[in-house]
Write a structure and sequence with these properties.
alpha+beta
Amino acid sequence: MAETENNETEETLGATEVPAEAQSAPEVAATPREPVEIVAPKERRRRARAAKAARARTRQPRTPEERQAERVAERRRKAGARRVERARAREKARSAAPSGQTTPPREHGPGRQKTRQGVVVSDKADKTITVRIDIARRHRRYEKIVRTSSTLHAHDESNDAHIGDTVIVRECRPMSRLKRWRLVEVVERAE
């Protein structure tokens, strides 16, 4: 009903009134304007689905080998895109790093024990301390500083460290079910 009214109003406007610009330019007036159909979003989606289904019906059925070949080609294409993106990210990281500065040697390697610095949170057990290790690192994607902490049990032979002390612990052989670290030194005493 609304479309027919729109068409009638356009026809009556075209017949009765012609703008001055159209009179002076005959090539513009010679091309008739087609009415534009206004389609609701739901109807547009329904038509798109119907057209897709029609294309799928007219397409020849493929063999499993052909489908597999298409999947392999798509995987290759995506792998190539990932490779390019990773190379671009590496270049960006390399250019962002100050020149002349190399990465420090890895902390852990064969025959090299890890060391950590942390704060003693418990010294209740005999010859054992619980140490909280605070870690602040930059998130790889979002580049926000993320703070986490982990606790570990360390062997303290002389019961030297107390709650609140800042200590350095070193990796060692397993001494009990939870202890795999030993106290190296007390860096700062708690007040």
